[in-house]
Amino acid sequence: MNIFEEVESNVRSYCRSFPDTFLSAKGSIIKAASGKPYIDFFAGAGALNYGHNHEHIKRRLIEYIESDGIIHSLDMYTVAKEQFLHSFRLTTLNKLNYPYKVQFCGPTGTNAVEAAIKLARKVTKRAGIFAFMGSFHGMSLGSLSITSNNYHRQAAGIPLSNVTFIPYPGDIYDINSIDYIEKILQDDHSGVDKPAAIVVETIQAEGGINIAPIDWLQALSEICKKHEILLICDEVQVGCGRTGSFFSFEEAGIVPDLVILSKSISGYGLPMALLLIKEQYDIWAPGEHNGTFRGNQLAFVAATAALELWDSKQFQEVARENSSLIKTVFEKKFVTLDPEIQVRGKGMIWGIDFSGIPIKEIAYEVRDICFSNGLIVECVGRKDTVVKILPPLTIEQGVLRQGLEILADSIKMALKRVVAHKRG
């Protein structure tokens, strides 16, 4: 038994999937204390879009620390916050003509989700929320109430109320969820009150890489406008360039009322979360939602440097080339490995769906074989039947190809069990 098992709580999870002790990381490679290298197709669950220890961001952090810059400041004005706000407005808000105010929340995505739910209820004076089956929004009670995963919900220990779950487009229920929402809202016998907000992920990452069609997102936005319901877009995992554009909803041409950002907004894996608020809905009283670590100055410094990278045409071109390579390999190579395999993805978030394979836990087996061969991938979706990849946007093409080869070989090895099962 090691020190982790002796001292750390049973709640630990990722270490059970990736049982090694890690020492250092650079770019898209993580090294264990033993010296074994791993290609990182996990990227901190989407918190490391710029890879590990990116030189540009690291230099800024070192310079800031060596200058004795402010490290903690609650929500007081600081030069680091000022520079981030200027950069964020220049590179995203002004460029996209988005009318948002920026709220600095507690340091994790779930806190920004909590803030969004609270603000929507404060604005509309309504309690209910519509969320979607297959969703994941966090583990604190408010965000857990709009998360559909029963395993996580049961841990709350109390009823998670005031939420109505709607089928996500293309999921196992196969209904027109837009028509369904409209009928619920118009039917005076539906038993469902008009909600304060509808919370949506344009791509359900933890839900299994389920992708909302553009026309569906547009229709959802129109329903919210028609019924004076706030539209909240959770960009925690699929934002900050993961899908190709900075915000995943850009392609749909919609402008949500509230937008939740975390994970890669800091660019370096440092805790940081934002709630973007249309100006007319910024009705908070001072301190009405706060947190001791909402002024993470190192995250501001890193985020400003990361936005400079994002604003570079060269950076975006590298990400586009990587996205194109992943799409080609998934759609032309992986789908040919077995007729029951499905692939889904956009930009640099993709999943391989093994739910049609008649062998239980085959996705886990693929993940474990990948890990033993030096590649880190995660399992998501209903019953964890989808292998998800989230490489850093900055990954070198040679390393990306190597990782995809390991993934392909691992799938082939796992599928040998399927052949044996059919013969048996």
Automatic annotation (TrEMBL):
It is an enzyme of class 2 (transferase). InterPro entries: Aminotrans_3, Aminotrans_3_PPA_site, Dat, Ectoine_EctB, PyrdxlP-dep_Trfase, PyrdxlP-dep_Trfase_major, PyrdxlP-dep_Trfase_small. Keywords: Aminotransferase, Pyridoxal phosphate, Transferase. It holds the Pfam family Aminotran_3. GO terms for biological process: ectoine biosynthetic process. PROSITE patterns: AA_TRANSFER_CLASS_3. Its cofactor is pyridoxal 5'-phosphate. One of its GO terms (molecular function) is diaminobutyrate-pyruvate transaminase activity. Its EC number is 2.6.1.76. Pathway: Amine and polyamine biosynthesis; ectoine biosynthesis; L-ectoine from L-aspartate 4-semialdehyde: step 1/3. Belongs to the class-III pyridoxal-phosphate-dependent aminotransferase family. PANTHER family: DIAMINOBUTYRATE--2-OXOGLUTARATE AMINOTRANSFERASE (PTHR43552), DIAMINOBUTYRATE--2-OXOGLUTARATE TRANSAMINASE (PTHR43552:SF2). This is Diaminobutyrate--2-oxoglutarate transaminase. It comes from Paenibacillus paeoniae. The lineage of its organism: Bacteria, Bacillati, Bacillota, Bacilli, Bacillales.
